[in-house]
């Protein structure tokens, strides 16, 4: 079985070999579906950020956190005001805060469903010359419960044409973990790079 710490041809260490040296080998309980998915998701994200030098975009996360924070502020305001001015004096404020809270929860549901979706990462590919528009990359993954097949999709959005292209790879999780539950980092890196390069080659052909 291949080892995550093995060197590539030519003696140049890959992204994950450096990760393996700097930190600890990624080892999880291979029967824990969530742990398996999280390990593979983190590995895929690391290829885009450290391997290709893309910048992770946290704007979607920031928006979600902002909505949650404002919602909590309304809930806290209702709690404090009702403590200082017991019901029924607090009725107008309670009604306002409750309606505002549930409105924001509705907005949050719409945002996570139609905008953030189930993407595990948003990344920006900066224009090398610094004059053209940036390109955008997204990662989406699925691993159903009690299913051994992990699917990873890379979506590319061209900054000029705004057109999107995507490619997906689906493999058994056993392809990326050894019997001890250690992530085979060199194999994961190779698969993600091939997926990325497939989209890049399409971009050059068009």
UniProtKB/TrEMBL annotation:
- One GO CC annotation: signal peptidase complex
Q: Where are the transmembrane segments?
A: 63-81, 93-115
The record's subcellular locations are: Endoplasmic reticulum membrane
| Keyword Chaperone applies | no
GO biological processes: protein targeting to ER; signal peptide processing
Keyword Membrane attributed: yes
Under Gene Ontology molecular function, one entry of this record is: peptidase activity
Q: How does it sit in the membrane?
A: Multi-pass membrane protein
For this UniProt record, give its keywords in alphabetical order, as a comma-separated list. Endoplasmic reticulum, Membrane, Transmembrane, Transmembrane helix
Q: Which InterPro entries match?
A: Spc2/SPCS2 (IPR009582)
Which PANTHER family does the record cross-reference, listed alphabetically?
Answer: MICROSOMAL SIGNAL PEPTIDASE 25 KDA SUBUNIT, SIGNAL PEPTIDASE COMPLEX SUBUNIT 2
Q: Which family does it belong to?
A: Belongs to the SPCS2 family.
The job of this chain, per UniProt, is described as:
Component of the signal peptidase complex (SPC) which catalyzes the cleavage of N-terminal signal sequences from nascent proteins as they are translocated into the lumen of the endoplasmic reticulum. Enhances the enzymatic activity of SPC and facilitates the interactions between different components of the translocation site.
Q: What is this protein called?
A: Signal peptidase complex subunit 2
- The organism of origin for this protein: Stylophora pistillata (Smooth cauliflower coral)
């Amino acid at each position: 079985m291949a080892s995550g710490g093995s060197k590539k041809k030519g003696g140049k260490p890959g992204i994950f070999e450096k990760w393996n040296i700097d930190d600890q080998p990624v080892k999880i309980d291979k029967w824990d579906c969530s742990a398996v998915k999280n390990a593979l998701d983190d590995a895929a994200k690391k290829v885009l950020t450290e391997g290709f030098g893309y910048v992770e975009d946290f704007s979607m996360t920031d928006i979600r956190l902002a909505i949650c924070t404002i919602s909590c502020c309304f809930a806290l305001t209702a709690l404090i005001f009702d403590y200082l001015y017991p019901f029924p004096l607090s009725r107008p404020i309670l009604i306002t805060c409750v309606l505002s809270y549930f409105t924001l929860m509705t907005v949050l549901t719409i945002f996570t469903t139609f905008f953030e979706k189930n993407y595990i990462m948003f990344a920006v590919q900066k224009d090398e010359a610094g004059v053209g528009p940036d390109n955008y990359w997204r990662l989406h993954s699925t691993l159903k419960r009690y299913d051994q097949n992990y699917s990873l999709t890379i979506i590319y959005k061209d900054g000029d044409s705004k057109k999107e292209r995507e490619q997906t790879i689906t493999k058994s999780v056993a392809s990326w973990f050894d019997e001890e539950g250690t992530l085979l980092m060199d194999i994961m890196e190779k698969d993600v790079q091939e997926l990325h390069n497939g989209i890049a080659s399409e971009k050059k052909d068009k």
